[in-house]
Design a protein that fits this description.
The chain is 42% helix and 20% strand. It is built from seven helices and seven strands; from the N terminus they run ββααααββαααβββ. Helix 2 packs across helix 4 and helix 3 crosses helix 4. Bound molecules: iron/sulfur cluster. The site of iron/sulfur cluster (SF4) has 11 residues, from loops.
């Protein structure tokens, strides 16, 4: 048991109030309980997301790969980057990508400079599926049901937990470009990647990247 500041959210006459109590005695939440919550939430979200797939063809991992490809930048849409991101074996990811391609969700494109490198691009069908499935409807309804301060607090806590897991296991961050330490602002709506020297557009900096490095070194 330890002493710390605790956020408190209460509802009075239909309005939400948010404040901090200091020196509250709290129990540390153990990893087992957090795992149980996350596992149950993941299961509910995956089940709901799959309902958006009218063909009923895709497995959760295939939808995850499709979602990643819809969010990543041009350095990160290769089979090797998908393998790193999903943390699965090369064979499993190859099979996953084959299913997505044969069902018309992604198409391959050779790299303009190096013909040995293949990029995976979402087709209109793939993009449509991601837009209808993610975020799943049950998550949107659940989040809307929480008071705004709690939504923000939850987002921050999950972001920090993700970062802590990645740091303590030496995993790549796969973060959003605008938060990368190599991202240099060149002024109005113009950015440069100091790792590759490429100029980045405002749209590029909203995408996730396999080379991302946190500003704190993570
Ligand atoms: S600035 Fe960082 S995240 Fe953005 S493209 Fe360069 S390496 Fe990737």
């Amino acid at each position: 048991m330890r002493t710390r500041t605790a956020p408190v959210i209460v509802s009075v006459a239909g309005r939400w109030y948010f404040f901090h109590l200091t020196n509250v005695m709290t129990l540390s939440m153990d990893a087992g309980l957090i795992y149980e919550y996350l596992e149950r939430i993941s299961h509910l979200l995956r089940a709901n997301a799959r309902r958006a797939d009218s063909d009923g063809m895709l497995q959760p991992v295939q939808l995850e790969a499709l979602h990643y490809l819809s969010r990543c930048n041009a350095y990160s849409n290769t089979p090797a980057a998908v393998t790193d991101y999903l943390g699965l074996t090369k064979g499993t990811v190859s099979q996953t990508l084959r299913v997505l391609e044969s069902n018309g969700y992604v198409e391959k494109q050779a790299d303009e400079k190096d013909g040995r490198v293949v990029h995976l691009l979402l087709t209109r069908k793939g993009r449509g599926l991601v837009e209808s499935a993610i975020p799943p409807k049950n998550l949107r309804l659940g989040v809307d049901d929480l008071p705004p301060p709690m939504q923000e607090q939850l987002g921050t806590a999950l972001y920090q937990l993700l970062g802590a897991i990645q740091r303590s296991n030496q995993l790549k961050s796969f973060g959003v470009c605008r938060t990368c330490r190599y991202n240099a602002s060149l002024g109005q709506d113009s950015f440069r990647c100091e790792l590759t020297g490429a100029t980045l557009t405002p749209s590029d900096v909203t995408r996730i990247c396999r080379e991302h490095a946190g500003r704190d070194g993570g």
